[in-house]
């Protein structure tokens, strides 16, 4: 049942999780069509969330540091003053579940999530063994929202002419979380892949964070023809590039979720450090290759998954 009272959605990150939560956000917006819908998130997703059109207000201070007493008091004050009738915790972490306690001594809003004592708990004991998409859909069903669409990023686009890209190009995402090196296919393998793509008439275009400059340099050392856009793209740029690219190949990173969701043909490389059954990219043209260790995956296998 739709309601006119205030509704809060909690989704802090990271990028891949945020992208996969946009289908549930669309479902919540449709269900609460007359409500004032607020998103509690973090700075990197503010503009992207605003452009979606799902939210009336966006709070980007959703993750105060443990020692930031002022930040915690601000968050508690804002939560209690807003008069939310219902909260959808799509983060479902220990941190976001603790936010339920910030409403003490009450009144407490209706709460969809895993916080102890909440009104609409997602209590499936197998929830941690479900893919994010199915887990969130089941959570919303428990809360009275039976239909959740896939992520729709038709609203996310940008003018990327300033990158001066050739007509045919493929995106490569060779980076990833620095603290999880096991999730990275070796940079020299990406270099060999880039060279092979270039030989087939596809200019390799490197995407990633500015902090991954060393990885990009290692790829370009093997394939100087690769174009390096690392540190130059925002989320809207990535969506636009994904729509224009012939394909994208990358490690299990957030940008690959975004690219898959805009319909780009993607090949995602997994090691044993993450499980695609739980967090795999979703989209109309997704291929997943998994190997442990990931360094054992041959360039020829990746090219084969691309049909090249």
Give the key terms:
308 residues; alpha/beta; Rossmann fold; 2 domains; 12 helices; elongated
What's a concise summary of this model?
The protein contains twelve helices and twelve strands. The protein has helices at residues 15-20, 22-31, 46-52, 69-81, 94-98, 132-142, 187-199, 213-222, 235-244, 254-261, 276-279, 299-306, and strands at residues 6-10, 37-40, 57-59, 84-89, 110-113, 120-121, 169-173, 203-206, 227-228, 247-251, 266-270, 286-290.
Low-pLDDT sequence parts:
none
Summing up helix and strand content along with how strands pair, one would put the structural category as alpha/beta
> Quick check: average pLDDT?
96
Rough outline = elongated
Record the strand order, biggest sheet. Answer: 3-2-1-4-5-6
Q: What features would you describe in this structure?
A:
It is a single chain. With 308 residues, this protein is an alpha/beta fold. It has two domains: 6-142, Rossmann fold (3-Layer(aba) Sandwich); 161-306, Glycogen Phosphorylase B (Rossmann fold), CATH 3.40.50.2000. 34% of the residues lie in helices and 16% in strands. It is built from twelve helices and twelve strands. The longest helix has 13 residues, at 69-81.
């Amino acid at each position: 049942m739709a309601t006119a009272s205030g509704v809060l959605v909690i989704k802090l990150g990271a990028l891949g999780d945020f992208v996969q939560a946009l289908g549930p956000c669309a479902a919540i917006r449709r269900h609460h069509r007359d409500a004032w819908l607020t998103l509690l998130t973090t700075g990197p997703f503010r503009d992207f969330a605003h452009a979606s059109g799902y939210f009336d207000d966006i709070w980007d201070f959703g993750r105060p540091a443990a020692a930031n007493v002022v930040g915690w008091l601000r968050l508690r004050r804002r939560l209690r003053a807003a008069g939310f009738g219902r909260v959808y915790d799509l983060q479902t972490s220990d941190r976001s579940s603790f936010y339920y306690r910030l409403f003490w001594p009450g009144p407490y809003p209706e709460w969809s999530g895993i916080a102890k004592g909440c009104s609409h708990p997602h209590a499936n004991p197998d929830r941690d063994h479900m893919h994010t998409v199915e887990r969130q859909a089941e959570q919303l069903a428990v809360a009275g929202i039976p239909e959740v669409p896939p992520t729709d990023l038709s609203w996310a686009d940008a003018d990327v002419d300033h990158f001066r890209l050739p007509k045919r190009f493929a995106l490569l995402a060779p980076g990833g979380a620095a603290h999880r090196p096991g999730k990275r296919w070796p940079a020299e393998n990406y270099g060999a892949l880039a060279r092979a793509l270039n030989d087939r008439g596809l200019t390799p275009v490197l995407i990633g964070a500015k902090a991954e400059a060393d990885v990009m340099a290692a790829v370009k050392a093997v394939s100087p023809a690769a174009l390096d856009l690392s540190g130059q793209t925002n989320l809207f740029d990535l969506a636009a590039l994904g729509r224009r690219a012939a394909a994208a190949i990358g490690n299990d990173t957030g940008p690959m979720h975004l690219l898959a969701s805009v319909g780009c043909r993607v090949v995602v490389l997994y090691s044993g450090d993450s499980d695609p059954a739980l967090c795999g990219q979703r989209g109309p043209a997704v291929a997943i290759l998994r190997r442990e260790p990931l360094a054992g995956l041959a360039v020829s296998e990746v090219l084969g998954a691309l049909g090249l």
